[in-house]
Amino acid sequence: MHLSECQLDELWTFIYKKEDRLTPLEQLLGVYGDTWVWIAFSPVFKLVPAWVIGKRTLRDARRLIFRLKSATDGHIPFLASDDLPHYADALLDAYGVTVRPRRRGKRGRRPLPRKRPPPDLCYAVVVKERQRGRVVRVTTRIVYGSKKRIAGLIHTSPVSATISTYGVERNNPTVRQHSRRMGRKVNAFSKDHDYLEHQQTLAFAYYHFVVPHRSLRQRLPRPVPTKGPLPEERGTKNRPKNAGGKRWTNAGGRSWRR
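Now predict its structure.
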């Protein structure tokens, strides 16, 4: 699918026990305790093209970015996230171009190959400063790309007016509402990683293919009369899977067509 924008974020949950109640052996296993649902969200189509369940580590950030790359058509969308440093490293691993720096002088070994961001990779972060648990200041910082190019992308965006993560943060409560296992204070937490992943697969399929989204309404060619005193229906609600393109693949690898 072709995406022009994508916002990245992660949701907290836990498996079997919360982190502070794990035994030393359970902590060594690295399976239970705090778990994060990494999400890539398209604010234009209201799609979740990629998601990953794991720990808050660079390894799982790489898994998310590579799944996002495999779900798109090769075009690099304008990306935004919070100031978690793992995203910048994962984006460089997935989209970076390998170059070999020139040797300086005649002695010593040649410099090792390294990756550099391509010119069309644009990535910015939203930095939130908190005091006593409250956000007191919000700033933005460009990580990859130029100010001029990012300003042009924001100007042509149909939904964004500035660098922000409003779309994915607004989608986070929707994810928690569609999946009781994601609730913060419930007795329906997952006791196994596979069960949480299967349930989230079902929840995202329900979100993409069943639930109509009000912001994706499409105007009807002719108003449809309604029953009773209600005005004529001038638009129809659309679903994210219809707005995102003719064919796309979810994180589990299965493809659908409209």
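The chain has one domain: 5-215.
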